[in-house]
Amino acid sequence: MRKLTYFVGMSIDGFIAAPDGTHDFYPVSESLVKDFFIGEYPECLPTHVRQHLGVDDLENRHFDTMLQGRATYDAALEAGITSPYKHLRQYVVSRSVDKAIDPEVEVVSGDVAAKVRELKQEESGLGIYLAGGANLAAQLMEEIDELVLKVYPIVVGSGVPVFSAEFRVFDFELESTRSFDNGTLVLTYSKKR
Q1: Which structural domains are found in the chain, ordered by start?
Q2: pLDDT tens digit sequence for 38-88
Q3: How far is residue 4's CA from residue 124's CA, in Å, rounded to a whole number?
Q4: For FRET with 92, which of 10, 47, 63, 110 sits at 20 to 30 Å CA-CA?
Q5: Nearest CA among 33, 84, 90, 82 for reference residue 63
């Protein structure tokens, strides 16, 4: 069965975005981009970034499908990009996005957990990338199998949390830790079964 992985960047104090939803304040270093994104998770770079970096021909290593919330997708739309991850099968969870906005993007407006369970049953050697946001991650907490948290060495005080949900405990175990030259840590957790 395929895994759903919440792959997200966050501040030390647990925020994935500013109160207005922007996330352009993360300190990105050359080694983080080169060794982690390009070297290990190239499919998590949007297509236009892959093209800019000259790595659009790299094969997907972990994911062939991505799921994102409307607010996450809105950032691409604001930049005039209607299909931000052309190298992945793309789903946007929304009740307000026009279903015909781009033929490469499928809008999920119903039971997102049921859709994820359906996607998990597909025959594929690659997983499902959950790109955000906090409300969507909270809705899918029971379906999330893995967390890949990029913890940037900053404190922002407030903003969009990693999860926006009612109190409930889910147990995860640490699988790996990596550090980068700018102080960023990448923590990978698997859900305890």
Answers
A1: 4-181 (3.40.430.10)
A2: 999 999 999 999 999 999 999 999 999 999 998 889 889 999 999 999 999
A3: 13
A4: 10
A5: 90
